[in-house]
C-alpha cells in the first residue's frame, strides 16, 4: 500500500528512534493490553515512566472517535523492533 512498512515518516510521531514500529490492521476492538500481550512475545515493550503503561499509541478516527486499527509500539531496543516488523510482515 501507500504506507510502506519500511517508512518512518509518521506525521503524528515525533520520536523517530528505530525502536518504534507502526502496525495496522488491528481491528477496532483492540486495547493497549491486547496489543501489549501480542508484541511482548517478541521483545520488551518500553514502559512510560510517568504512567506505568506500555508505550503503545492507538490511533482513533478523528471524525468517528473509533479506533482505526493502527498503532505504534515502542520497544526497549531496536533489534526487538526489527524482529517485530519481520515477524509481523511474515503473517
Distance between the termini: 16 Å
What is the third-level CATH name, the topology of the domain at 30-89? Alpha-Beta Plaits
- Please report the total strand number as a whole number: 3
* CATH superfamily descriptor of the domain at 30-89: RRM (RNA recognition motif) domain
Mean pLDDT: 85
Radius of gyration: 13 Å
Largest sheet: 3 strands, antiparallel
Order of helices and strands: EHEEH
Specify the number of helices.
2
Assign the CATH class of the domain at 30-89: Alpha Beta
CATH architecture of the domain at 30-89: 2-Layer Sandwich
Strand content: 15-25%
Question: Fraction of residues in helices?
Answer: 10-25%
SS-derived structural category: alpha+beta
Describe the structure.
It is a single chain. The chain is α+β, with helices and mostly antiparallel strands and 91 residues long. The protein is built from 2 helices and 3 strands; from the N terminus they run E-H-E-E-H. The protein has helices at residues 32-39, 78-89; strands spanning 20-23, 56-60, 67-74. A hairpin with a 6-residue loop joins strand 2 (56-60) and strand 3 (67-74). The longest helix is centred in the C-terminal third of the chain and has 12 residues, at 78-89.
Amino acid at each position: 500500500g501507500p504506507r510502506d512498512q519500511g517508512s518512518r515518516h509518521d506525521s503524528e510521531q515525533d520520536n523517530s528512534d528505530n525502536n518504534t514500529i507502526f502496525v495496522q490492521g488491528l481491528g477496532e476492538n483492540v486495547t493497549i493490553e491486547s496489543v501489549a500481550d501480542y508484541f511482548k512475545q517478541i521483545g520488551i515493550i518500553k514502559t512510560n515512566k510517568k504512567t506505568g503503561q506500555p508505550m503503545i499509541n492507538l490511533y482513533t478516527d478523528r471524525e468517528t472517535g473509533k479506533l482505526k486499527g493502527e498503532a505504534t509500539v515502542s520497544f526497549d531496543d531496536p533489534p526487538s523492533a526489527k524482529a517485530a516488523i519481520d515477524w509481523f510482515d511474515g503473517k
